[in-house]
Write a structure and sequence with these properties.
Layout: E1 4-13, E2 16-26, E3 31-35, H1 42-50, E4 57-62, E5 65-66, E6 77-80, H2 92-102, H3 107-120, H4 136-148, E7 154-158, H5 166-183, E8 186-191, H6 194-200, E9 203-208, E10 211-216, H7 218-223, H8 228-233, E11 238-247, E12 252-256, E13 260-264, E14 275-280, E15 286-288, E16 298-309, E17 313-319, E18 325-331, E19 346-351, E20 357-360
Parallel strand pairs: 3-8, 3-9, 6-7, 7-8
Antiparallel strand pairs: 1-2, 1-4, 4-5, 9-10, 11-12, 11-14, 12-13, 14-20, 15-19, 16-17, 16-19, 17-18
C-alpha cells in the first residue's frame, strides 16, 4: 500500500476546475515532485494534502486513513512555503522548537531534538541569531529544521527554492537530496522549474490544466515523453511538422517540413498519411561541414542563423532552405576555441535514425 493515495480528487473554484479527477500513489521515502506551469493545479493539490483546502470530490489517504475529517494541525504533515514563514521576533532556536513548546514537550527532549536539528542542517553557531541576520540558504535550512523537528510522516515543499539565487539554489538542491536520504521522510515538492524537478526527484507528476499528463522517473520523462506537452515542458526540444509516409515494425518513414524524408523510431499507432510532430532534443542533433555526417541516415544542409554561448555548451540554430529552423547543442570542449561555427556558415546537420519521437496530432 502506498503511503499517500490521491483518489479521483477534483477541486473547483466556480466554473474553473483547478484539479480535475487526479489519482496518484506516492510511496514512503520518495522524493516526489508535482511539476507544471502556473495555474496547472499543483499548488491546489498540495494545499488539499496539507488540509488547507478540501476536495469537492475524491479522497486523500495517508497510511490508508482518509484525511477528510482531519484538520491541518492534526495531520502528521508539515509544509515549507516559498516565504519560509519564519517568526522574525524569534531566534533560530526558538523558531525551530516552536511547535515542540506548543505541544508542551519536556525541556530535555526539546534540547536534544534542537541540537540534532542544528547539526543536521549545518546551523551550529546560528541558534541565537534572528531571521534578518541569516542568508537565504540559512533561512531555508531553518524552515526545514522547524518542519522536520516533529518528525512528520510527510513534508510538503511549496516552491521553497524559488527565492534563492541560481548558485545558492544548486547548493540547496544538493542539501535537500542528502537530507531526504538521511531522514527518510517522504517529500512532496511543488515547482514550475523543470531542471529542479529533474535534479531532485525520484518520480515526477507533470500537470497541465488540472490534469496529470505523465507520472514517471525523470529520465523516462525526458527520454520518453508521452505527448507534445510533456516533451516541450521537460527540457528543450525541436518540434517539426511531419507526415507519415510509411509505418513499419522497425521504423517510421516521415516527411519532415524543411528537412525532407527521415527515418524515425517506430510508433504502433502511426499510419501512412497521418500528420503529426517529429520531436528531437538539441543534444541529439549533430553539426558538421561538407561531407561529414553522411554515415547518418538523416542528414541535411542548412545555414547557422544564430549561436547562443552558454559557457560549457553552445546552442546553434540552423535554418533550412525553406526557413524552418532546428537547434543543436554542442559542448565547448575543443581547446582554444569556444565556438565551432559562426553565423552564416553553411553546415550539415544530422541525427541517428533511432533518435527523436513522433507524436500524432
Amino acid at each position: 500500500m502506498a503511503q499517500l493515495e490521491i483518489r479521483n480528487v477534483t477541486r473547483r473554484f466556480g466554473d474553473f476546475v483547478a484539479v480535475d479527477n487526479v489519482s496518484l500513489n506516492i510511496e514512503a521515502g520518495e522524493f516526489f515532485t508535482l511539476l507544471g506551469p502556473s495555474g496547472c493545479g499543483k499548488t491546489t493539490l498540495l494545499r488539499m494534502i496539507a488540509g488547507f483546502d478540501v476536495p469537492d470530490s475524491g479522497q486523500i489517504l495517508l497510511d490508508g486513513k482518509d484525511l477528510a475529517d482531519t484538520p491541518p494541525e492534526k495531520r502528521p504533515i508539515h509544509t515549507v512555503f516559498q516565504s519560509y514563514a519564519l517568526f522574525p521576533h524569534l531566534t533560530v532556536a526558538r523558531n525551530i522548537t516552536f511547535s515542540l513548546k506548543m505541544a508542551r514537550c519536556a525541556h530535555s527532549e526539546i534540547s536534544a531534538r534542537l541540537q540534532q536539528s542544528l547539526d543536521q542542517m549545518r546551523l551550529a553557531g546560528q541558534a541565537d541569531k534572528y531571521p534578518n541576520e541569516l542568508s537565504g540558504g540559512q533561512k531555508q535550512r531553518v524552515a526545514l529544521a522547524r518542519a522536520l523537528i516533529n518528525r512528520p510522516r510527510l513534508l510538503l515543499l511549496d516552491e521553497s527554492l524559488a527565492a534563492l539565487d541560481a548558485k545558492l539554489r544548486e547548493e540547496v538542491q544538493v542539501e535537500l537530496i542528502n537530507l531526504q536520504r538521511d531522514v527518510g521522510i517522504t517529500f512532496v515538492f511543488v515547482t514550475h522549474a523543470q531542471t529542479e524537478a529533474l535534479a531532485l526527484s525520484h518520480r515526477i507528476a507533470v500537470m497541465n490544466l488540472g490534469r496529470l499528463e505523465q507520472v514517471d522517473e525523470p529520465s523516462k520523462l525526458y527520454g520518453f515523453p508521452r505527448n507534445r506537452f510533456v516533451a516541450d515542458f521537460i527540457g528543450h526540444i525541436n518540434q517539426l511538422d511531419a507526415r507519415v509516409l510509411e509505418s513499419a515494425h522497425s521504423h517510421l518513414h516521415l516527411s519532415v517540413a524543411g528537412a525532407g524524408d527521415i527515418i524515425a523510431p517506430p510508433l504502433i499507432s502511426a499510419a501512412p498519411g497521418q500528420n503529426g510532430t517529429f520531436s528531437i532534443r538539441p543534444e541529439q542533433v549533430r553539426i558538421g561541414v561538407h561531407n561529414e555526417l553522411v554515415e547518418l541516415k538523416n542528414h541535411f544542409s542548412g545555414m547557422v542563423q544564430s549561436v547562443l554561448y552558454q559557457g560549457d555548451v553552445s546552442v546553434y540554430r540552423v535554418k533550412f532552405a525553406d526557413g524552418v529552423t532546428i537547434e543543436a547543442l554542442l559542448p565547448n570542449s575543443a581547446p582554444g576555441r569556444a565556438q565551432l561555427f559562426e553565423v552564416g556558415d553553411m553546415v550539415k546537420v544530422g541525427w541517428r535514425h533511432d533518435a527523436g519521437i513522433f507524436f500524432d496530432d
